[in-house]
Model the fold of this input.
Amino acid sequence: MVTLNVNGTWYTVGSEYPLSSTLLDFLRKERISTGTKSCCDEGGCGVCVVNITMLDPLTNSPRAYSAVSCCLLLKSCDGMSITTIEGLGNTRDGLHPIQERLAIYDGAQCGFCSPAQVMNMYSLLKSNSQPSMKEIEDAFDATLCRCTGYRSIMDAMKSFAVDAHDTLKGGPIDIEDVPTQICKSTGKACHGHCSQNKKSCVAKEDNLCWLQPASLAELCTLLDQHSHQKYWLVFGNTAFGVHKDLDPSNYEVLINLRQVKEFYQLNLSQPDHITLGANLTLTCLKSLFEQTTDQGLPYAKMFASHIKRVSSTGIRNIACWAGNLMLKHAKRDFPSDICLLLETVDAKLSIASKNGEVKLYTLQEFLAKDMAGHVIVSAQLPKYKAGNYVIRTLRTAYRYQQCQAHIATGFKFEIDKKREFLVLNKPSIVIQGISSDLFHAHRTETFLDKKKLGNANVIQEAFNILSQELNICSNGPLFASREYRQSLALSHFYKFLIGVCVGLTRPRYTSGATEVDRPVMSGSQDYGVVDMARAPANQPMMKVTAKHLTTGEIKFLDDQPDLPGMLYAAVVLSEVGNASIKNIETSRALALPGVVKVLQAGDIPGQNNWRVKSWYGGQISELLSSGKVEYAGQPIGLVIAENPKTALKAAQAVHITYTDVKPVIVSLKDAIKAESFFPKLDPVTRGDAQGVMSKAPHRVKGNTSTGEQYHFHLENQTSVCAPTDTGGVDIQSTSQWIDFTQEVVSQVLGISDCNVNVETQRLGGGFGGKIWYNGPVAGMCALAAHNLRRPVKLHMDLATNMQYQGCRMGYFYDYEVGFDNDGKVLAVIVTAYCDCGSDFFALDLNEHVFNWLENAYFIPNISWTVQPCKTHKPVSTAMRAPGSATSIFAIESILDHMATYLNKDHLEIRKMNLFQPGQVTLSGMVLEQCLIGDMVKQMEKDIGYVQRMQSVEEFNKNNRWKKRGLHVMPSRYALVYTWLCFNTSVIIYHADGSVVIAHGAIDMGQGIDTKAIQTCAHKFGISVDKIKVVKKSTTINANSHFTGGSVCSELICLAVIKSCETLLERLAPIRKKLNNPPWNELIAGAYAGGINLTAQYWPSDNEKIPAYNAYSVCCSEVELDVLTGEYNIVQVDYLYDCGTSLNPELDMGQLEGAFNMGCGLFLLESMKYDPKTGKALSDGTWNYKVPMSRDLPTRFNVKFLRNAPNPIGVLGSKAVGETPVAQGSCPLFALKRALEAARSETGQQGWFPIYAPLTVEKLQKSCLNDYRHFIL
Done:
């Protein structure tokens, strides 16, 4: 039995939950907390964060912690006090200040992550009621957000800081003392440490046993009794987030260590060492090292800083340091920072055997030891009382927060600084990431014994020896390259040496010792001129659902109650690509208790094809493979079971054998080499590019590329289907295009569209990933429901979603550009190779892509050819700014090449080629309102461009190993999807005059419903509180197009305007008759007079909005660590032409979120695939990294252009949802400026290519570091 307190209510759980169940399973299944979300189920996304109260071993008093509930085993929560989002506040009884403030600051866009963000802050304030802004920023490393760009979230949370800026309104609050519930056992205030009352426990189920010893002696007895079985020692249960085979359900015995009293020992008073019990969490260690004043621990503050970067706060709060070591022992490829820290200071481990004997071991002995029947009891960390020890650890990772290190290093030297930094004895140099084990540079250590670091020859010889030792470095598809990790290790050693030899190192080299400085984030948001004439339209206003999102009351599809008789489906995916199916063996899956059926292609009653005829004619993409497998991740079957975990386990148990297995192509480079092409598209041309090119005074050729990007919508693909009593199906689905989803289901089941009703309320993010790819999900779910005549839910787990779903298309651009002496572009010729995946099915390649090829520049002669390439991967799909962001990056790269070739200022070259009013774009659009030239001038003036450039140059002159770069990037973004149509109705209720809007576009965080309500309120002159937007449905909103292309908010607002005008025209006679009565009386009179109070709108050709342009200018300043490739985006200034915004508050959030996603595309994100099978290796939060708050600009200033309404826009507005993605490449070009400064130090002055994403690895490699230049 498990007894736990959630939000003040006690729950007792018995055998109805398997022993491998997590706290999240319990909270969601019992519907105690649907605000606690599920996404990755591996501790990496942080949407499941709750607050737990436990005893703090340092103070022996209760303390509140944030925790990822998807990791915590339910059984280990016995006696705990837990608070979820529902325990804080709600819209009926009142919001908690954190919920209120996050809503006010517009920190909830799609809102899927919002409850977790609130709970993270709640936990922080519970444990630290007066945090600083820095402490708040550091605490927000657990929960991902794909929508906001984090700025609004961080501003909301930092408004609680004691040192908050005046611009952050709100101020600190008093959080009540931790005890808030009544303990069931004592009847007094609950402190949440009943679970730490030392008691033994045994629980069993068919294939799994739970053991809970209360002492070391009991534990040793259990180890002896069960040593012949497959057992797993459990504390925080976070290991399975890295290695799925460590899931508790894969073991026979689970032994919970949380009650073993000896494992909580903490002894700081010994003269020569401190003792840390095995159950101390990483957070406990961090706090201990931060707070200690023991002079014998010179490494304490540095250890605390290092631990802060290990995983996330929500993991560190529940994971113990010994578990981190045991994971390293079990999985040698696991990069254990804790193992590195302990080895650096020569710590020793106390390890108990099953017979109760306790011995001391070094870390190396521990890693070599068979730990079966053994357990770590404690660690002894030595004290170094002499003042001449220098100890430092370093780590470089793909991303600063919540990311495993490429390389982590530890150095321990005893040095006499007065004797030319004499090394007094053999030092310690430990490196994590060179090999599977902890690597000691023994030869280098031996050489440096009794050597003087002040001797240049000694330093160089040490680097020579270390470089040779690093040759054992291994490679792997998920690792950074061998060369980079070797170079990083050398750079870390150099950083250490610079930091040691203070006073000896020349001044311009000293900054090489430090990490890139990251002050507290700040910025400004300038809405420009807010037009009050059409209020509440065009006004900054909180999203109408904001408070419901921050309280967790909003229900996403997976949060909805199960339908009676609900079954659950999981998809069987192919594990290889480019093969044929020989046999599908389902017996193991069907033998699992609770499995109902396995469906295959032969069970499809209609067409085995999810490409609908109305859009794709006769093209075929099979719903379930009938024989040929194009890519790993292709759906082959569908398992239906009585619960979702059984369905997923059974899907993994289906065994497929393949025949005719051929090599796969998973990279665009290999596809080009193999000429794996689909038919080439006709070139887009203007003028005579070839002829002019041949006569151009200057010509350069080059290439660049962009990678794939996964959408990472935190709400995974989901569909719920229920058969109707007339042979049809009702479907709820997470779709951006309900009409497409309807047609897929109709086609698959072989029934008419009128028998398929699809509904979508809202999405937890979409970004294009749910335009097409939700159709097959709904098709498979409907197939199961139709076959079994029962409701079925198909909710993909993250790994399945990432293997099944295609990404943003990757591009490789070969180009040639001709130009004159001044830098005027004369001709451009481009061949764009694009990675289509296994089939030709990409929005990027349609007729609209030529709208963005020129960006903001007039190119008189151009030839742009697209060559689609076939790879054995899921079909690439649309993602926020599809085709446009990558095309703009390509043309920017071309102008960048020109400027470098001519040795001219990059901005001057761009200004010279800017579009002028009256010129015509490649698409034939006449630029009557061309604002870009004036906006560039305004940006130069606003930022003090000349002075900023001089400041950067001065910085670079004074710093060899840190470099800064400044770059200004103009943009013209064509908004061309104005042809989209949405079936829209405005309905007035006669009884009270309230209004419902029914439109066919999907709100997925962009605030489309809020803008529609504002517009309707303006037209009718009523309060926004009287208006509501209802669920989207193929019955009410039939034939609507997909939600995408940025312009849907405008189109819906236009439809609302037209519908309102129709109604106002009908109401005019009644208004006149009743002498302009109040709204309610007017509607009542109209109803009494038989007036139709419903108006529906569908645009005719002459009513559609013409295509138009949104202009912007971005300036980015960055600082680069030349030695590691790490960087900080120091400042971004962004001027955006928003027209007269429909809602400046929401549009500001859209801009920041899109820019952040662009930074991910161009600087960080990339998919990795198994080169042998084609399987996506980036299938979770461990191997795919999206930007987090530390990846934001340190200072982010955004300004909407003033006094520039769009003359052809809806209410004077321009779209903003996708346009800033391309500007996410501006920091990339700023980094290239920094790279140029770094390379010039080595005599390299010419042009060099860069390829997105420009990761820390690519940056460091491009710096051309050579350890022979590592001098003091």
Observations:
- Confidence is low (pLDDT under 50) at residues 177-198.
- DSSP finds 35 helices and 44 strands in the chain.
- Residues 1048-1073 form the longest helix (26 residues).
